[in-house]
Write a structure and sequence with these properties.
Blueprint lengths: L2 H18 L9 E4 L16 E5 L2 E6 L4 H7 L13 H4 L6 E9 L11 E4 L15 E6 L6 E9 L4 E8 L8 H15 L3 E6 L4 H10 L7 E6 L2
Parallel strand pairs: 1-3, 8-9
Antiparallel strand pairs: 2-3, 2-10, 4-9, 4-10, 5-6, 6-7, 7-8
Helix pairs in contact: 4-5
Length: about 230
Amino acid sequence: MTSTARVTDRLLVRHLAGWLGHWPPRRRLEVVGSLARTTPGWDGAVHPALGVASEAGGVLSVPPERVQDVTALLADDGDRAALAPSLPELVGYPDRHWYEASFRWSDAPSPLPDAGRWVPAAHPAVPSWLRPFGGDVLLALDPDNGAYLAGVGIKRHDAVGHELSVGTAARARGRGLARRLVAQAARRVLDEGAVPTYLHAPDNVASARVAEAAGFPDRGWTAFGISDE
């Protein structure tokens, strides 16, 4: 393991411990209480149930007062599937739904050429979907007319955990812009002393390919919880 990988692993543990309330896991699925589940996250919304699982086990973070009830829902073997039908209502958000996503991170982004430039999220060229990320966002613009082609926003969950989200305009797909932007953004995150993470739906083949090409390998980790999307 390289020194960069060791540093990134330490940052990942620090991020997950703060984001969830505990890490690493001590059993197949451990339910922990965290006040972070009752306060607004990066987007100003409350995320009342949030978990990450690896081959070594998983942690599900919920409001402190819900730990006992959520733990009671678990099957004896700790299978998180038992939580899906009842968890939204149990944590106080019955209109939301259970989700699972592939959870990836990178300690060695692919050495792809840069494809964009960093601009403030309020820049007039920034599309509406990227504005809520705040801070700087990474844009690839048409060199002829300055129109938006693709972009990356950063979900700054905490000081050391920065999740990347990428979107490409339909007319610009197939050019490799997304993978180049994700790799470029990941290098910046690492340079700033944080760990770049990347989540995508398990059946989103295109997003999985972007992640792989940008240097975010599939390690078999999963993020899960309650979403309002």
